[in-house]
């Protein structure tokens, strides 16, 4: 597989509260790992929450004594355990300083083995598959507005412009008992997997994302093009995108800083 990721501050915000991780190499018991986290909280607490969620998750996985698994169910179990540990650790950190009080983050993490994608998800950052059937959102937004859509109170097209569309109902780090949504997804017929924060999906429709993500170009170029398109539409929030192409060649593991530079 090929993969690339980028996070950018956007055109309005003064600092970036998103954090991403993008590695096609094994980490602990996982064959690869991809994460997008979008932090929230006063001052710089959102940035702390998102970056620490990744740190705690990766530490948990790295310290796992289990061998690299060939069973998707085992990979999912590890991801879910790591997400829940990160939730408890961020919650504990939020009590360590008044400036961190109430901080939290979205958290979407996945690992791919063969035709299976294991996913642990909290919040409204999204994971899509792209393939013969077009673009399909495989995560559920943990938002008040999505609950209204599910209940039939509003139409899906109304959710896009609802004034409370960004009100989260599930966040990593705000409650030690918060449960991640976890599942396996069949990647048969899928060309690419895309992870992103709402800084992308608030600016671009699914079809606009598909048109750019489907271009015949390396993942890095398509990630850059998506962020440029979101900025062109106003870039009102931080923007994070990871694209994973399902193919045979594996690139080196890379972690990106707040502006998308390799570190």
SSE topology string: EEEHHEEEEEHHEEHHHE
**What gyration radius follows from the Cα positions, in whole Å?**
17 Å
Please give the count of helices: 7
Separation of termini? 21 Å
Q: Helices and strands: which structural class?
A: alpha+beta
Biggest beta-sheet profile: 6 strands, antiparallel
Shape: globular
Q: What this model shows, in words?
A:
- Strands 2, 3, 4, 5, 6 and 9 form a 6-stranded antiparallel beta sheet that branches. A 5-stranded antiparallel beta sheet has the order 1-11-10-7-8.
- The protein is α+β, with helices and mostly antiparallel strands.
- The two termini are 21 Å apart.
- The chain is globular.
- Helix 1 crosses helix 2.
- Strand 5 and strand 6 form a beta hairpin.
- It has 7 helices and 11 strands.
Task: Quickly list its features.
single chain, 263 residues, alpha+beta, six-stranded antiparallel β-sheet, five-stranded antiparallel β-sheet, 7 helices, 11 strands, disordered C terminus
Q: How would you summarize this macromolecular structure in one to three sentences?
A:
By secondary structure, the chain is an alpha+beta fold. The chain contains 7 helices and 11 strands. α1 crosses α2.
